[in-house]
Design a protein that fits this description.
The complex is a heterodimer.
Chain A lengths: L19 H5 L10 H10 L2 H5 L3 H4 L5 H5 L6 H15 L5 H17 L4 H11 L4 H14 L5
Chain B lengths: L9 E6 L4 H5 L2 H9 L4 E7 L7 H11 L4 E5 L4 H12 L8 E4 L13 H20 L7 E4 L3 E5 L3 H12 L3 E5 L22 H14 L3 E4 L2 E9 L2 E8 L14 H5 L3 E3 L18 E3 L1 E3 L9 E3 L10 H5 L12 E7 L1 E4 L3 E3 L16 E3 H7 L8 E8 L14 H15 L4 E6 L9 H8 L4 E5 L5 E3 L6 E7 L4 E7 L1 E6 L1 E3 L1 H10 L25 E3 L9 H15 L6 E4 L4 E3 L9 H5 L5 E3 L5 E3 L9 H5 L5 E3 L4 H9 L13 E6 L3 H10 L8 E6 L7 H9 L4 E6 L10 H18 L7 E5 L5 H18 L7
Helix pairs in contact in B: 2-5, 5-17, 6-7, 6-14, 11-12, 17-19, 18-21
The chains are: A mainly alpha, B alpha/beta.
């Protein structure tokens, strides 16, 4: 069992698998995996399984898990570190999300800031041709519900 | 009175049964050298110590004044030593005037060693013991009278059992309790695990013994105000709060309680002002009520802070005129030989675990609260238990309180009996039911509609307006989400040090561990408090269940007996300060691990003989070397050191002097020699009571006569028998390096190591590697 400890993944050996993180997580049960499960994969050294989990990309970094954790495990930081690793190694299940992530990060690197117009265009151009139409439909739906002001 | 100093006349007897020593070393040359030394009266090799005539001849010499100290060289078992001492006591030789020297434990007599070198080393070892023997003083143990009573602080289950045990042993007991009645937390429980039996049964059994004994004086509403005196003779001032009811007159008829118009809320979570829906439990009690938690003493008590100043309803109602509203706090003084602190525990305030809503929602309660509703639980359908609430948690109590799993299981099984249609959910991280409590776990597991969920909820939310509680968790064993709406939630909270413990610790100067419980050597002496004469019993020491508390309190009772038996014997080898040299820097007082020093009427730091453990740390730390243990003085240690001729192996070959702590390191060295590991001839060791008893002056002495390296071997951190002696001596090494540099001696010639009791190989390896390093360093510049 190889040790998966990498310099930038905060300490996960502290975790006792109590499950408080999953209980408080707003997106815990939206996918097959919960934050506790991801930490368990790391404890076994299954870095690839952890990185391939769609849960990584659902994490909203709301910090509830970290606040509830009795051992002080830095779960949101672990998720972010795993995103970086997933992206570097190409172990990603969520293709679209990765594209957006990459575009975002490169823009920050190049320009030091985000121009939302440019970001939207870059993301749209990189996606499937139907994407602008999906987005337009979504826009109409939001407009109907009074969400656009 | 002037002491007439009679010069020492030491008889040296080398015991060599079977001639083993004689074949290893040249005994006649040893004898020749010894006979020429100062203060040697008689010096011979004896084949059989027990042979006819030998002991008799020694006794004759002692009686005639030809010998007044004896140095025994050879292997003597503890029983043989006792016998020799007692036989010679009949010739009036004080038992403290014997010195014992075992040269074999230092490697003499091993196979394949140079006879000449061994002979020289053996001679020096005997000379070292001779230099000690010269300065031995005749000593008598000191009998100190003791007050034959024990003060017990806290009348919970531990304190009660301690009191009844002591009364059976016919000792006087003062049992003080800060509440109005005895019984502590156990009296607040409804049922005990694992028998699910009524705790009042066990408590009443002890109380009956109290009633029948005239040895126990119970003082409720009482707390210690101050402590003076010393073990076997403590003087304690106790402050008593007013009960407002005369204990002699009250017969507990209850008329006052009926008449009282004031209701007091019992628990914030149960107060009538909390959101009404879903409230459970007993809400209030009257201002005048029976003693709590148990109605012993039988008299009632008034919580005057709740009374309107003009109200006199209870006075009017009382038929025996027992109500005395004008009572004021009073003080009593108690003398006791020993003190036992059984101040128990308090529940960790669960309102701090904000996410669970304790104190916010009336149907979130603790294990302790739940005991109140077990007798008559309201009709509840869905009941949840959350284990480890605020425990094993860095943000709250980081330790496990060991009893809460069993407590919840007991409550679950009891509730199932009372509410057969209820569903019970137990959210847990681990179920800890050690030993025979496992049966309780299996029993509850087998019940219908008791569901165990391995996964803890993160938050507790209200379920709209229903008054129920929404709880969500991941069942980690299946990975599935569990979402429930509960009528009642019981939080299994932890055991924290009690308010009583927090108040007592600074008053009696008792050290505490990181978690706030009374602390000493938990492994070997769980009842000790690190202060002589004061013992700890029960959960004041740490979380434990009822039978463990009772166990623990008995241990405290047994240890306290030495201070209440009428006389307390002090070993006469206690530290004595030299007031002509002492400059009152009080470093001895500060470094003493047992706080045994006080200022005498001239302001000199003086050890209290009843508190002193005779570890010698004061002797080690004194910057002026003015305090010494009797018969183990700095002068004796310096004389031992002087007996070593550092160049006996040639100038280039290093000589190491090792000071070995007598609790661990010494045994390692002895075992090394006994088990046949080769002890290099370069090393001499001196056994000391504690590594901390080694004064820098002795180390400097050793180096100034040319010894190439000094080794100090003590216990590992946390294992020193005198708490921190090993650390104190290391701290002082900073003081000595400056001194050594001034003397142009490398500070690396002093080494500190830790040895455990069986580390014989480590000892030999340490010595050998030190010798190597010293060879590389070159000889000590002071070596001649």
């Amino acid at each position: 069992m190889e040790s998966a400890v990498k310099d930038d993944i905060p300490q996960y050996s502290l975790c006792v698998q109590c499950g408080r993180c999953s209980s408080g997580c707003p997106v815990a049960f939206e996918s097959e995996d919960t934050p506790r499960k991801i930490i368990r994969f790391l404890q076994w050294g299954w870095l690839k399984e952890a990185c391939e989990s769609p849960f990584l990309w659902l994490c909203a970094t709301c910090q509830v898990c970290k606040v509830r954790c009795p051992r002080g495990v830095k779960i949101p930081e672990i998720m972010l570190a795993l995103r970086r690793t997933a992206q570097q190694k190409g172990w990603v299940m969520a293709g679209e999300k990765l594209l957006f992530y990459r575009t975002f990060m490169e823009m920050v690197k190049k320009k030091g800031r985000i121009s939302e117009l440019h970001l939207g265009l870059a993301a749209a151009l990189g996606k499937m041709p139907s994407h602008p139409i999906d987005e337009a439909l979504l826009f109409l739906k939001l407009l109907k519900r009074g969400k656009i002001r | 009175m002037e002491k007439i100093k009679v010069p020492s006349k030491v008889g040296i007897f080398i015991s060599d049964p079977g001639g083993r020593l004689g074949s290893a070393i040249a005994l006649d040359s040893v004898l020749q050298r010894l006979a020429k030394m100062k203060n040697v009266g008689r010096c011979e090799v004896i084949a059989d110590i027990w042979s006819d005539g030998f002991l008799h001849s020694v006794m004759e010499d002692v009686k005639a004044g030809n010998l007044n100290r004896i140095l025994w060289v050879g292997r003597f078992s503890p029983n043989q030593q006792k016998r020799l001492k007692s036989e010679l006591a009949s010739a009036e030789l004080n038992p403290y005037l014997h010195e014992w020297c075992d040269i074999e434990e230092q490697g003499i007599g091993q196979e394949g060693t140079d006879r000449d070198i061994q002979t020289q080393k053996a001679t020096m070892l005997i000379q070292m013991s001779l230099s000690r023997a010269r300065f031995l003083e005749a000593l008598e143990p000191i009998a100190m009278p003791a007050v034959e009573s024990v003060l017990i602080v806290g009348a919970g289950v531990a304190g009660l059992h301690a009191a009844t045990s002591l009364s059976k042993l016919n000792k006087k007991v003062y049992l003080i309790e800060k509440e109005s009645g005895i019984g502590g937390k156990v009296a607040q429980l409804h049922r005990l695990y694992p028998r699910v039996c009524d705790p009042r049964c066990g408590l009443e059994f002890e109380v009956k013994k109290l009633r029948e004994s005239d040895k126990v004086e119970v003082h409720t509403l009482s707390q210690i105000k101050s402590l003076e005196g010393s073990p076997r003779n403590f003087e304690v001032k106790i402050e008593k709060q007013p009960r407002y009811v005369n204990e002699e007159r009250c017969n507990a008829c209850g008329e006052c309680n009926k008449a009282c118009p004031i209701q007091i809320p019992i628990n914030e979570a149960f107060s009538p002002t909390a959101s009404g829906k879903g409230a459970v439990g007993i809400l209030s009690k009257k201002a005048i009520h029976p003693s709590e938690p148990m109605n012993f003493p039988a008299a009632y008590v008034i919580e005057r802070t709740y009374c309107p100043p003009e109200c006199r309803e209870c006075v009017k109602a009382c038929p025996t005129k027992a109500v005395e509203l004008e009572q004021t706090p009073s003080e009593i003084v108690v003398r006791a030989g020993a003190i036992i602190a059984t101040t128990g525990w308090d529940a960790y305030p669960l309102s701090k675990v904000e996410e669970y809503g304790y104190g916010l929602y009336p149907n979130v309660i603790s294990n302790l609260d739940a005991e109140r509703i077990l007798e008559n639980p309201p009709e509840l359908k869905e009941i949840g238990f959350i284990q480890c609430a605020g425990s094993r948690d860095e943000r709250h109590l980081s330790y496990c309180s060991s009893v809460c799993c069993s407590a919840s299981l007991k409550q679950a099984s009891y509730l199932k009996e009372k509410l057969p249609d209820a569903r019970i959910y137990i959210f847990y991280q681990d179920i800890r039911t050690p030993g025979f409590d496992e049966e309780l776990y299996q029993k509850v597991k087998a019940l219908d509609n008791v569901i165990f969920i391995r996964g803890l909820p993160s938050t507790v939310k209200p379920d709209g307006d229903t008054g129920r509680l929404k709880v969500r968790a991941e069942d980690t064993l299946s990975g599935k989400e569990v979402s429930l709406n509960l009528d009642l939630l019981v939080l299994a909270g932890g055991m924290a040090p009690s308010a009583g413990t927090n108040e007592l610790a600074p008053l009696l100067n008792l050290p505490r561990n990181n978690f706030g419980f009374f602390e000493s050597h938990l492994q070997c002496h769980p009842e000790e408090s690190q202060r002589a004469g004061i013992y700890i019993g029960g959960s004041a020491r740490g979380p434990m269940n009822v039978s463990q508390s009772i166990d623990s309190s008995h241990r405290a009772v047994v240890e306290s007996l030495q201070f209440v038996d009428g006389t307390f014997l002090v070993e006469p080898t206690y530290p004595v300060p030299d007031k002509t040299k002492c400059d009152k820097c009080k470093r001895c007082m500060e470094d003493c691990p047992f706080s045994a020093f006080y200022f005498d009427d001239q302001g000199f730091p003086t050890p209290d003989l009843a508190k002193c453990r005779q570890c010698g740390n004061c002797m080690g730390t004194c910057p002026l070397a003015t305090i010494s243990l009797r018969n183990f003085t700095i002068k004796q240690m310096a004389a031992q050191v002087q007996s070593i001729k550092a160049s006996f192996l040639g100038k280039e070959e290093p000589v190491v002097l090792a000071f070995l702590c007598g609790n661990d390191a010494y045994y390692a060295a002895r075992a090394a020699a006994d088990s046949g590991l080769t002890i290099p001839p370069n090393v001499f060791f001196i056994k000391v009571p504690c590594a901390g008893s080694i004064n820098n002056a002795v180390i400097a002495d050793a180096l100034s006569i040319g010894i190439d390296g000094v080794l100090v071997a003590g216990c590992k951190d946390g294992q020193c028998h005198y708490v921190k002696g090993n650390q104190l001596v290391k701290t002082r090494s900073g003081d000595i390096s400056d001194k050594l540099k001034k003397m142009m001696i490398e500070p690396e010639r002093v080494r500190f190591e830790s040895l455990e009791i069986r580390d014989s190989e480590k000892y030999v390896n340490l010595i050998n590697s030190y010798i190597q390093d010293l060879r590389a360093m070159g000889p000590n510049p002071f070596k001649e």
